[in-house]
């Protein structure tokens, strides 16, 4: 998933070919025309297919500068802002992939000092087109509530992609779990905020990302990604530094994910899945309707389970 997904699809939808080493040590090129079963599996199937050594992608003209719409709303309005976002986001043009984050405001030049690390709701999106055309697309964000700050502007796309790197540097402790959802009911939003109240530290967050558009137009059986029809992804992301916060941070992410499960499709996004220590539990939720075909392909190319054994040993 990414900032441009409703306009240009998922990263795996734009993959043209890969070179990979399979469990027998052979180097293979996979594409629509070569080893199409491997190519199908590599696009959304997660680990266990092979060691990929190169990628070839289709690209789309963009930037180098892009327009970003980003408004900050007071935490006291969180419930109403999320409800309005739920109704608005799927109706916005596909040039915007709306995101909402329940977080704490990091220090920054555009954030008043008294608001630093205070809880807030942040709504954002990147315009997948010329910045000069973005104004009308982002205008509906102003109807979501009473903004505390407007951080919108035009920025290098590379800066947008790296804007929280300093807050979440390499080596930070992290644990993520997510759900796909067809809708966000009032009860789901209330449950989300109830658990956000016990968020263990300011860096941790809950994010809502909007799908549809180009993501949904790809045939269900075109790749191993099994969640084309979902409207939203709700991600519970714990980030922390001190090892003595491990139990609290991981426990919060798991309990929040458990509480939101009744409102989900039952599917899980592989990149936000907590997969490493819960593989047997989570993998069927990640793979969904692709599971049986993925198992056949893995068995054909890795009959001895070399990659599965390596993954479990990590």
**Unreliable segments of 5+ consecutive residues:** none
What is the helix fraction of residues, given as a range? Answer: 25-40%
Number of helices: 11
| Shape-level CATH architecture of the largest domain | 3-Layer(aba) Sandwich
Biggest sheet, in brief?
8 strands, antiparallel
Taken from the alpha-carbon principal axes, the silhouette is globular
Element-level helix/strand string: HEEHEEHEEHEEHEHEHEHHHH
CATH class of the largest domain: Alpha Beta
What is the strand content?
15-25%
Total separate domains: 2
The chain-level mean pLDDT equals 93
Mind telling me the C-alpha Rg? 20 Å
CATH fold descriptor of the largest domain: Vanillyl-alcohol Oxidase, Chain A, domain 3
Q: What is the structural class? A: alpha+beta
Number of strands: 11
Distance between the termini: 25 Å
């Amino acid at each position: 998933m990414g900032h441009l997904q409703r306009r240009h699809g998922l990263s795996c939808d734009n993959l043209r070919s890969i070179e990979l080493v399979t469990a027998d040590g052979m180097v293979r090129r996979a594409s629509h025309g070569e080893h199409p079963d491997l190519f199908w599996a590599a696009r959304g199937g997660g680990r266990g297919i092979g060691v990929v050594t190169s990628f070839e992608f289709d690209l789309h003209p963009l930037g180098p500068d892009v327009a970003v719409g980003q408004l900050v709303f007071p935490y006291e309005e969180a419930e109403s802002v999320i409800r309005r976002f739920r109704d608005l986001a799927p109706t916005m043009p596909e040039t915007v992939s709306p995101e909402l984050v329940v977080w704490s405001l990091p220090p920054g030049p555009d954030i008043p000092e008294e608001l630093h690390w205070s809880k807030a709701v942040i709504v954002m999106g990147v315009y997948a087109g010329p910045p000069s055309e973005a104004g009308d697309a982002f205008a509906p964000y102003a109807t979501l509530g009473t903004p505390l700050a407007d951080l919108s502007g035009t920025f290098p796309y590379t800066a947008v992609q790296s804007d929280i790197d300093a807050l979440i540097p390499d080596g930070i402790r992290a644990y993520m779990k997510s759900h796909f959802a067809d809708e966000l009911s009032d009860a789901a939003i209330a449950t989300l905020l109830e658990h956000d109240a016990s968020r263990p530290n300011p860096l941790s967050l809950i994010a809502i990302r909007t799908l549809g558009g180009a993501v949904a137009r790809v045939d269900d059986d075109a790749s191993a990604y099994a969640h084309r029809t979902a409207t939203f992804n709700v991600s519970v992301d714990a980030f922390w530094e001190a090892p003595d916060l491990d139990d609290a941070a991981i426990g919060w992410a798991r309990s929040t994910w458990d509480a939101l499960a009744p409102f989900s499709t039952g599917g899980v996004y592989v990149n936000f899945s907590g997969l490493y220590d819960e593989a047997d539990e989570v993998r069927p939720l990640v793979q969904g309707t692709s599971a049986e075909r993925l198992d056949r392909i893995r068995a054909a190319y890795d009959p001895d389970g070399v990659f599965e054994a390596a993954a479990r040993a990590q």
